[in-house]
Design a protein that fits this description.
Helix content is 36%, strand content 25%. The protein has one domain: Alpha-Beta Plaits. It has three helices and four strands; from the N terminus they run βααββαβ. It has 113 residues and is α+β, with helices and mostly antiparallel strands. A hairpin with a 3-residue loop joins β2 and β3. The mean pLDDT is 84.
């Protein structure tokens, strides 16, 4: 017998890029290519990203999950759902797989072999 804990990691300032979203190389290579509109675009991206992080937080906190934060991410923990159920819940709510990371930890219960 085991106990399980599901952890959802929400990176605040980044997410995984989908293949059709990869930015052009001139935006990746260096600072010399940055323009004022790039900074404005980054501001819009961060505003949207943080709003979506907050929406995921509200969804899981309503289920009684625990939440803590670091400089880089919001971390939510819960035991009422399996990892695949969390993924299905988030996808049903319109979130993309690149917006969250799910980890599943099992611990053995004492006295059971």
């Amino acid at each position: 017998m085991v106990n399980h804990r599901v952890t959802v990691i929400l990176k605040l300032f980044e997410r995984n890029w989908l293949p059709h979203e990869i930015p052009p190389m001139d935006k990746i290579r260096g600072v010399e290519m940055v323009r004022p509109e790039d900074v404005r675009d980054l501001g819009h991206f961060l505003q949207e990203r943080l709003e979506r992080v907050a929406a995921i937080m509200e969804l899981l906190l309503a289920r009684g999950w625990n939440c803590r934060g670091t400089r880089q991410a919001i971390i939510l923990d819960g035991e009422d759902l399996e990892a695949h159920e969390v993924k299905e819940l988030l996808l049903e709510q319109g979130f993309q797989p690149c917006e969250f990371e799910i980890k599943l930890d099992y611990t053995r219960k004492w006295g059971i072999m």
